Amino acid sequence: MPKAIQVSRSGGPEVLELVEYDPGPAGAGQARVRVAVAGVNFIDIYIREGLYPRALPLVLGVEGAGTIESVGPGADGFAPGERVAWCSVPAAYSEVALVPVASLVRIPAAVSEELAAAALLQGMTAHYLTHAMRPLHPGDWALVHAAAGGTGLLLVQMLRAIGVQVIGTCSTAEKADLAREAGADHVVVLSERPDFAAATREQLGGDGVHVVYDGVGRSSFEGSLSCLRPRGWMVLFGQSSGPVPPFELQRLNTLGSLVITRPSLGHFVATRAELDERSTAVLVGIESNTLQVRIGGRYPLSEAARAHRDLASRATTGKLLLVPSN
């Protein structure tokens, strides 16, 4: 019997259970996929903790890659034996998953399943942040928090490809080196300069940045606002330190007619055309070696709790992966 990681109650990593799990045959419009790799993401932690409520019990995980075993009625365009990847679909922490073919993308021959699973969700996130939010121009300045994380490293690379100059924040000097390798022009090491807002304005001669990309949330929010120049954009796309407290909108005027947005990936891959555009940009970037993906750790499916602890500690770099033992 195949296995999966199940959550029966909200809580810490200890609520993750390895259970026997077979989702059954592919239904209408679905493919049954043998999962080779599953991505570990902060959204998995939010769901586990109950910050993003879901009906329980559930099999965790929203991103994976593997090989199609069979397809159901109406699952047009895909066939058994094809290597595919997906994200924003439940139950990826498993040895076998049922995935709507509308959510599947083919993996190019030169790209491994591991790299596809490591890059798809975070890569498409970085793509919509850089291509569908504030218009970006060469010479603009952006601040990227957690610049050595999985999303951060991809975001830095995509910003630099546009010609945007990047200031990153990282917790350690070792992580700062990775952010610089990805293309960051300047990195604030938070263990040395906790006041990243002051460090950012110092770097820019007193000016602020045009846009902040903040996936951290509560602990960085006020500093991020302080980094922005008039008419700047605050793009809040995550909350790894917790949700942002209630905010008085009049402050946006006081601080210089700022813009705040709280987007999520699902709204930017809502059509097949958008999914194809963003997934192709990521996977072709990997295939052509213009987009580098860093894998920060690989864990057996049975050690999902350890992967969650490591990710939440923010001591990791790049992407963490679960590898089912099938």
Tally of extended strands? 16
As a percent range, the share of strand residues is 25-35%
Residue-averaged pLDDT = 96
The fold-level CATH name of the largest domain is Quinone Oxidoreductase, Chain A, domain 1
The CATH H-level homologous superfamily of the largest domain: Medium-chain alcohol dehydrogenases, catalytic domain
Given as residue ranges, the uncertain stretches (5+ residues, pLDDT < 50) are none
Order of helices and strands: EEEHEEEEEHEHEHEHEHEHEHEHE
Q: Total helix count?
A: 9
Cα(first) to Cα(last) distance is: 10 Å
The first-level CATH class of the largest domain is given as Alpha Beta
The radius of gyration over CA amounts to 20 Å
Q: By helix and strand content, what is the structural category?
A: alpha/beta
- Morphology: globular
Known CATH architecture of the largest domain: Alpha-Beta Complex
Sheet of most strands = 7 strands, mixed
Helix content: 25-40%
How many domains? The number is 2
Entry summary:
With 326 residues, the chain is α/β, with parallel strands linked by helices.
Descriptive tags:
single chain; 326 residues; alpha/beta; Quinone Oxidoreductase, Chain A, domain 1; Rossmann fold; 7-stranded mixed sheet
